[in-house]
């Protein structure tokens, strides 16, 4: 299963450790550039208020099966965490769409490192994607940055 | 960017057209089998109420850049739709976790066709993933099946 880069993420986060724990917790704006050959697929995207962005975490460790969530002391199975280090390092972000111009989306809420390959964009719909009261212990109390990291 | 299958989705949806428009709108239960070599990553997943499941839509048309949403008359740019046909056919589903046993997750809300390769499992957290009032016209009024399809 070979993925193609349909674009690239441009952000102020230059290297591992720069990005916030979850992009939605900070106000940083980023850009998503969609390559010319895929721009026909962006038609009508301007009518979406929020987008699901899937991107490839190209600096991840794909051999990891456990991770220690920020602020936790013991490691957890990687599929119970949002660590970038996992067998298929596909990140999921929900972003606010601010503008689109010439194939470049300006967004808020993206936690991608600068240069991360873009895989997909989908409309976010509260009707099916927003679920109240769901979570796991180590994500319920979240601050923008891990405890003790700043 | 090569993805590996970390497991497989088992569902009652055998072929294209069997699956509901969005899995969350029906009560069907499915199974997700994680392959033995990745099961260490499932530790602690039983503490999650809802999971994000990414799977590969292996019967998709990857050349499509437009799609006509169910009930609509004109086509839209594929990135403004949830069509399975897209350059990287990675599906995003949010499921209720019902049980885990021997590497097999029983879930509700998955819309995968039977046999779809599993790519990733992540914990869903309302704190970052639930956004109210977001959407796009053709997803606001959703019925489990497209208008006129039944």
Chain-wise SSE layout:
Two copies of one chain form a homodimer.
Chain A: E1 7-10, E2 29-34, E3 50-56, E4 66-67, E5 76-77, E6 90-101, E7 104-108, E8 117-123, H1 126-129, H2 137-140
Antiparallel strand pairs in A: 1-2, 1-8, 2-7, 3-6, 3-8, 4-5, 6-7
GO molecular function, one term (chains A, B): methyltransferase activity
Family (chains A, B): Belongs to the tRNA methyltransferase O family.
Keywords (chains A, B): Methyltransferase, S-adenosyl-L-methionine, Transferase
CATH class category label of the domain at 7-62 and 88-124 in chain A: Mainly Beta
Oligomer: homodimer
Structural class computed from helices and strand pairing of chain A: mainly beta
Q: How far apart lie the N and C ends of chain A?
A: 38 Å
CATH topology of the domain at 7-62 and 88-124 in chain A: Elongation Factor Tu (Ef-tu), domain 3
Count the helices of chain A. How many? 2
Salient structural properties:
globular; two-stranded antiparallel ribbon; disordered C terminus; 6-stranded antiparallel β-barrel; mainly beta; 5% helix; Elongation Factor Tu (Ef-tu), domain 3; methyltransferase (chains A, B); homodimer; 150 residues; 2 helices
Could you describe the 3D structure shown?
Chains A, B: One of its GO terms (biological process) is methylation. The structure is a homodimer of 150-residue chains. By secondary structure, chain A is mainly beta. Chain A has a domain at 7-62 and 88-124: Elongation Factor Tu (Ef-tu), domain 3, CATH 2.40.30.70. The first copy, chain A, contains two helices and eight strands. A six-stranded antiparallel beta barrel of chain A has the order 1-2-7-6-3-8. Chain A has a two-stranded antiparallel sheet with strand order 4-5. The longest helix of chain A has 4 residues, at 126-129. The termini of chain A are far apart. At the A-B interface, strand 3, strand 5, strand 6, strand 8 and helix 1 of A face strand 3, strand 5, strand 6, strand 8 and helix 1 of B.
């Amino acid at each position: 299963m070979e993925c193609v880069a349909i674009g690239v993420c441009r952000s102020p986060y230059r290297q591992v450790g720069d990005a916030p724990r979850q992009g939605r917790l900070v106000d940083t704006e980023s850009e998503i550039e969609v390559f010319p050959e895929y721009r026909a697929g962006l038609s009508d995207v301007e009518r979406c208020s929020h987008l699901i962005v899937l991107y490839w975490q190209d600096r991840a460790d794909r051999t990891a099966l456990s991770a220690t969530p920020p602020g936790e002391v013991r490691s957890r199975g990687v599929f119970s965490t949002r660590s970038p280090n996992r067998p298929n390092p596909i990140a999921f972000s929900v972003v606010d769409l601010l503008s689109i111009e010439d194939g470049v989306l300006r967004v808020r809420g993206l936690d991608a490192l600068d240069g991360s390959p873009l895989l997909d964009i989908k409309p976010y719909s509260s009707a099916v994607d927003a679920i109240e009261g769901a979570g796991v212990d180590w994500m319920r109390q979240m601050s923008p940055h891990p405890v003790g990291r700043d």
